[in-house]
Design goal:
This protein is mainly α. The protein is built from 3 helices and no strands. It is flat and about 40 Å long.
């Protein structure tokens, strides 16, 4: 079994004002997620031995829920 202490992920998020138009939010999300296809970014990450995974907001929400479950298990 894998050690749950190693299951954490470091995530970064971009936040916009609540009043941001849904179309603008969609464009920003698409642009950021589209960076995963940037060959320069991939090359730099590979050279630095940094695994890069770019996903939309749903992945961050899922990661937070997972991390909370793991932390609760470690604490209790």
């Amino acid at each position: 079994m894998r050690d749950p202490k190693f299951a954490y992920t470091i995530s970064f998020g971009l936040f916009a004002p609540l009043q941001t138009a849904p179309a603008m939010s969609a464009r920003l999300t698409a642009a950021l997620v589209g960076m995963k296809d940037d060959r320069s970014l991939q090359a730099q990450a590979r050279l630095a031995q940094i695994p890069v995974q770019l996903e939309g907001p749903g992945a961050v929400v899922e990661t937070i829920a997972r991390d909370r479950r793991i932390a609760a298990g470690l604490a209790g």
